[in-house]
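Pasting as-is:
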Amino acid sequence: MLSALKPFMSEIRFDALETIADNRARFEATGMALWKNTLDQANSGSWTDKAALADPDSIWGRLIHAGISAIQTDQPEALKAYLQGRQ
């Protein structure tokens, strides 16, 4: 259904990150970017900026590896530094 709508981006929610990672190629084939909110809010679960600041690889790194290409954060400088360190 999403492929028929052809959205350029979709906010993604998941029970298991592996579900996203296992379907990464399908999302990429549609040209759709996946967006995840890591703001420190009640509905963010364990995927929060607070957790990312303590261990960026376990939050931001895992999201990126799974195919998330847009991360909403209150810590843009920390995320930018993390991304630059990965290059």
